[in-house]
Specification:
This protein is α/β, with parallel strands linked by helices. The protein is built from seven helices and six strands; from the N terminus they run ααβαβαβααβββα.
């Protein structure tokens, strides 16, 4: 896959539907995963995936800091869409971490980096080691963060995985409309302790 011309591929996929992009990725016949956070509107990608192939593993990094609403929506979507879900949690319990460090602010850069490693990056490393994906389907969109603006529908992750973002160019309005049209549940009370601020990366897409 290293011989892929990403410019040509992205031009080819630019006007394709998310379902068509997912089908393109799966037809490459490589080990594939989809990641989800079960955050608001995460159901869009999950619903698109099961229309093509519900056997694809869905990887969820459960930081241990999710809200009751998130867990309820995750359970509902897993059951209704019959997701092939694999969940990965930190090695240290949330209670123990809260006692030792709490949730660090960005002012304490070193501690926040270690916190992010514990609750997101280390579990994700275990997920990658188990599934060994060559293709990573993701619901990221261009206008979400400054880093994502530098990407495209198809890009190379720093780990050497081909990252495919079927709804990369979708607007908020398109996402909302899809959620409404398909009557998909959305988590309204969501919390990601690694982001701290809106439009900040949690680390999964930027870590090496």
């Amino acid at each position: 896959m290293n011989n892929f011309n990403l410019t040509e591929i992205n031009a080819e996929l630019r006007d394709k539907s998310p379902e068509e992009v997912i089908r393109w990725a799966i037809e490459l016949q490589k080990k594939t995963i989809l990641t989800t956070s079960f955050s608001p509107n995460a159901a869009v990608m999950l619903h698109q995936l099961v229309k093509v192939d519900r056997r694809i593993p869905v990887v969820w990094i459960d930081s241990g800091y999710n809200t009751r609403d998130t867990y309820n929506v995750a359970t509902q979507l897993t059951e209704e869409l019959q997701l092939n879900l694999s969940s990965y949690a930190p090695l240290m319990t949330t209670a123990r971490r809260d006692a030792l460090m709490g949730i660090p602010t960005l002012e304490d850069e070193a501690l926040h980096k270690e916190f992010t490693r514990q609750v997101k990056l280390e579990p994700f490393s275990r997920a990658l080691a188990e599934h060994q994906p060559e293709i990573w389907l993701t619901g990221i969109r261009k206008d979400e963060t400054a880093f994502r603006e530098t990407l495209d529908i198809v890009s190379w992750d720093s780990r050497g995985i081909l990252k495919v973002a079927p709804i990369f160019y979708w607007s908020d309005q398109q996402v909302d409309q899809y959620m409404d049209d398909n009557k998909l549940p959305s988590c309204q009370r969501y919390f990601d302790p690694t982001k701290v601020e809106d439009k900040r990366e949690c680390g999964l897409h930027t870590s090496i």
